[in-house]
Design goal:
By secondary structure, this protein is α/β, with parallel strands linked by helices. It is built from 9 helices and 8 strands. It binds BIS(adenosine)-5'-pentaphosphate and magnesium ion.
Length: 214
Amino acid sequence: MKIIMLGAPGAGKGTQAKKIAAKYQVPHISTGDIFRANIKNGTELGKKAKTYMDQGLLVPDELVVDLVVDRVNQEDCRNGYVLDGFPRTIPQAEALDKALASLGQKMDYAIDVEVPDENIVTRMGGRRACAGCGATYHLVYAPAKEEGICDTCGKELVLRDDDKPETVQKRLNVYHEQTQPLIDYYTQAGILRKVDGTVDIEDVFREITKILGE
Ligand code: AP5
Ligand code: MG
C-alpha cells in the first residue's frame, strides 16, 4: 500500500502517518524528519535545507526528489510506504510518478487531512517536538506523560524553530501557493481521499482506516 499524506503544515500528517505505519506495517517516510535529522547531524544537506526551512520556504525540488526516490527503492518499501511531506510541488509529484512508472508501480492513495488555517495557527503554538527522536506532542491534544519530557526516549521537548507564529503564517502561504495544487493533481489521478482533520486524533485515524481498509 503506497500512500501520500497531504495537508497544510500542522494538519496532522505526521501524527496520522505514524499511526498508519504502525497499523499497516509500512515505513513512514517524512522529508521534514529527514531534513531535521540532517540538520542535527550537521550534514551538507542539513546546512542547505536549514536556510530554507527557517524562513518557512520549501527546500528546492532538486534537493528532495532523488532523496525520496532512493528511499522508496529500498528493500523495506517493497510492500508499500507512507509519504509525509512529499510531494509538495507539482514537479515533485511528476518526478515521483515517473520514477514509479519506470518500475511499473503507482501510488494507491493521496489522503488530504483538511484543517482550516485558523485552527492551524493555534495548533502549532502548542506543538512540542522531541530534541532527541523527533516525536511530536501537543500541550493540550497529545500531551507527554511527564511535561517537557519525551515518552519514548526521555529527552527534552522543544518548540520547533519553524513553529514561531510569523513562520507558521509564511508556511501556510507557501502551502496554498505551491502544495494545494496537488489536490487537483491527485483528484485527476483518481486517488484523492479527504478526511476532516479538525476532529480528535483517533477519529481522524478511524476515517483513514475506513479508506485503507481494516
Ligand atoms: P514538515 O516537517 O513536513 O512540516 P509541515 O508540512 O509544515 O508539517 P508539520 O510537520 O508542521 O505538520 P504535520 O501535518 O506533520 O502535523 P503534526 O502531526 O505534527 O516540513 C518542514 C519543512 O521542511 C518545510 O517547511 C520545508 O522547508 C521542508 N520540506 C519538507 N518536505 C519538503 C519537500 N517535499 N519539498 C520541499 N521542502 C520540504 O501535528 C501538528 C500538531 O497538532 C502536533 O502538536 C499534534 O500533536 C497536533 N495534532 C495532530 N492532529 C491533531 C488533531 N486531530 N487534533 C488536535 N491536535 C492535533
Ligand atoms: Mg510533520
